[in-house]
Design a protein that fits this description.
Chain B: Pfam families: ABC_tran. Chain B: Keywords: ATP-binding, Nucleotide-binding, Transport. The structure holds two protein chains of two kinds. In chain A, helix 3 runs antiparallel to helix 10 and helix 12 packs parallel to helix 14. Helix content of chain A is about 80%, strand content about 0%. Chain A has helices at about 1-10, 20-25, 30-55, 60-75, 80-100, 120-140, 150-155, 165-190, 195-200, 205-225, 230-235, 235-245, 250-270, 280-309. By secondary structure, chain A is mainly α. Chain A has one domain: ABC transporter involved in vitamin B12 uptake, BtuC. Chain B has helices at about 55-65, 105-115, 130-145, 160-175, 190-205, 240-245, 250-255, and strands at about 1-5, 20-25, 30-40, 45-50, 70-75, 90, 180-185, 210-215, 230-235, 235-240, 260-265, 270, 295. In chain B, the strands form three sheets. In chain B, strands 1-10-9-4-8-7-6 form a seven-stranded mixed β-sheet, sandwiched between helices. A three-stranded antiparallel β-sheet of chain B has the order 3-2-5, with helices on one face. A three-stranded antiparallel β-sheet of chain B has the order 11-12-13, with helices on one face. Classes of the chains: A mainly alpha, B alpha/beta. At the A-B interface, helix 8, helix 9 and helix 13 of A face helix 2 and helix 4 of B.
Amino acid sequence: MLLADAATQAAAGWSWNPLTDIDLMWSYPFMVNAFRAGTVIAVLAAAVGWFVVLRRQTFAAHTLALVGFPGASGAVLLGISAGIGYFAFCVTAAVVLALLPRAGGLRGPGGSPGGSHEGEESALTGTVQAFLLACGFLFVALYKGFLGGVNALLFGSFLGITDSQVTLLAAVAVVVLAVLAAIGRPLLFASVDEAVARARGVRTKLLSTAFLMLLGAATAEASQITGSLLVFALLVMPAATAQVLSPRPAVSLLLAVVIALAVTWLGLTAACFSVYPVGFYVTTFAFGAYVLAKLATQARPILRRAVTA
Amino acid sequence: MTLTIPAQSRTPVGEPVLELRDATMRVAGRTLWSGVRLDLGAAEFTAVLGPNGVGKSTLLKAVLGLQPLASGEIRILGAPPGQSGPRVGYLPQRRSFDANLRIRGTDIVGLGLDGDRWGVPFPRPARFSAKRRAARARIAEVIELVGATAYADRPIGQCSGGEQQRLLIAQALVRRPELLLLDEPLDSLDLPNQAAVAALIGRICREEGLSVVMVAHDVNPILAYLDRVVYLAEGGAATGTPQQVITSETLTRLYGTPVEVLRTSDGRLVVVGTPEPPARHTDRHDASAAPEGTGHAAG
């Protein structure tokens, strides 16, 4: 495959001079598109993910991501772009989750996640998830000529992103971010304090459904860089890290976006200059950031004590 | 069965803040309470008492307009329920916040001010907006009022139960309501915190001229601050001052079975022999329901 060859060539070209390295990397059009797509996806996933972490909806995000896999592989089998498959399946699954009673991380009274995933519901979701994963696997097997198919769809790939795909990703991201900006404050209220928000006339059910749609779209986007199984690298890890670092909403949301951008750019660069996959790098950098943030908050009181002593 | 004893302690100033006229609540064909009459004036503190499952929280929901009455009438500040907007503050029954919730107490209080408005959840910097400065000043003021300034910038999940409850009271107060509805705010607090939060509510009620209706499991922590009690029993209700209602005679008539109210040497009330209404397992108090029928602090 041409792109893979180009990537291998680039891997040989690491010079330790950032400017020449970036020049070399961006001399490949597919790398430029990977950065464009990665930037769009990182911003979107961090913003939506910030609410996912706050609302304790990682289970819903995981479900949507897994549903994206048969969508993408089915689309490829039918000869359409994998991106379309991700969007179609993730957003449809979000609608289904919203319709299921008590699904999608609805909480008990008072906004704390009380008995959010009852046995029956998670068993049902698990059953459907497994079946859909198996369907995805079948679609990949039926499409015999699909290079590195399963790996790319499950664990991410940055190769072969076209201009029109970048445009689609950007358009979806703009719509999702605009809706998120419009509903942000009542959504935050409903996320931390559902009972009070409802008593104050906030339409918590409607917001919860709307948010699942946004989550479906964001998951579909994130899957296109990190693959279905590693979406948390962009959807959960940056937001979780940011919330560890600051309890101020504005600060932690900004931090989440910065971290997501940093791990995406670093991950793409590392993947470009080495033979290992992008999903591994993005996830590892995001994990590293989380561990550092945790260590920093643990160390802070100790350091303070050491300074005052 | 209904007993209404005219309140003698305080006369309402101006229009009543809250009026209940023979209010009756029926849920799934069962009459929870009936004939509830109440005239609540400004700066008056009322407790809603009664056995578990009798529909104390439902009374607050009816006042909020979330649950319609079977018969009778409720008027809040001269209007039907559900139309008073920011003039009514509400603190629902709750468990505590998740310990990992990384949002500051200040932000929780701020959501009480504008959380129902569309838009980005982050205010513009205060120096660019007079409105924002006013909002910030109000949030700081109300946090000061409940004595939560020291921990308002900590993530709320890391605050103790008493601290969280103070911040939530601040949230309910931030829009300067004239009527505050509290659903078991002392629940799940330890005894010193129960006394402290009760004193806080009593003080705010007097100093801010705010009327308070509080659903309570145990009347004793708030007894010193109360102007009125509404005692609900299956099918009936009694309203009046605590001295009038929480007596052996009134409760015996209300329940139609011998009930004795004992006063301990330190002034606490103990109700003995209250019949337990049919168990409703939707009520989250199931676990703590046991002591009430046998001999327990009134409420």
